[in-house]
Design goal:
Elements (H helix, E strand, L loop, with lengths): L2 H16 L3 H17 L1 H19 L2 H7 L1 H23 L9 H8 L3 H13 L2 H10 L10 H30 L6 H23 L5
Helix pairs in contact: 1-9, 2-3, 2-7, 2-9, 3-7, 3-8, 3-9, 4-8, 5-10
Length: 210
Amino acid sequence: MAFDTWLIFVVTVFFVSATPGPNMLLAMSHGIRFGLRGALPTMAGLLLALGLIMGGSAAGLGALLAASEQLFSFVKYAGAAYLVWLGYQAWRAPVSERMGSEDDESAAAVSNWQRFRTGFLVAMSNPKAFVFFAALFPQFMRADAPQMPQLAVLAGTFYVIESSWQVVYAFGGAKLKHWITSPLRQRLMNRFAGGSFMAAGVALSTVSRA
C-alpha cells in the first residue's frame, strides 16, 4: 500500500470517526455517568463489535447485507428499536438533588459487563456499518498485492483513530459531569442524550443499502 493512499485513508477515517454518531454519543454519555475509567468497558464493547463488523465485511457479510433486502431490513429495524429504547431510558433517567456518593453508588450498580454489552450492541445495531466497511476498504487496497497485510494495516489504523476519538468523547463527558450538578442540568442532559439516541434510531430506520 502506497503511503499517500494510506494518508488519504487516515484523513477519511479521522473525519468519519469524529462524526457524533451513536457510538460516540454512547462514549460521551457513559463518560458523564461513569467517568473516563468507568467508560472503558463501554469502549471495549464498541471496539470489539467494530472488529467483528470489519471481519464480517471482509468475509462477505457486508455483501450479503447489501444483496438481501430482507436481512438488511431485519438488522436495521432491530438496531433502530434498540437505539430508541436506549434513548427512552436516558430520557426517563432519574435525577438527584446533588451529585455525589449516591450517584457513584448508582453508577456502581451498573456492572462492567452491562456497560460492555451496551457498547457492543450499539455498535452492532447498524447494518450500514457492514456495507460501509465492505465498500470502504477495497478503495484503498491493491488487487495485485497480498490482501491480509493490507487489511491488517487498514484495520489497525481504523482502531487507533476510532479508539482515540472514543477517549476524547468519554473524557469530554467526564468533564461535563462536574458541570451537571443541579437537577435542571441533569434533566436537560438526560433529554439531550435520550433525544439524540431516539433521533439516531429513527435515522437508522430510514437508511437504505445503497
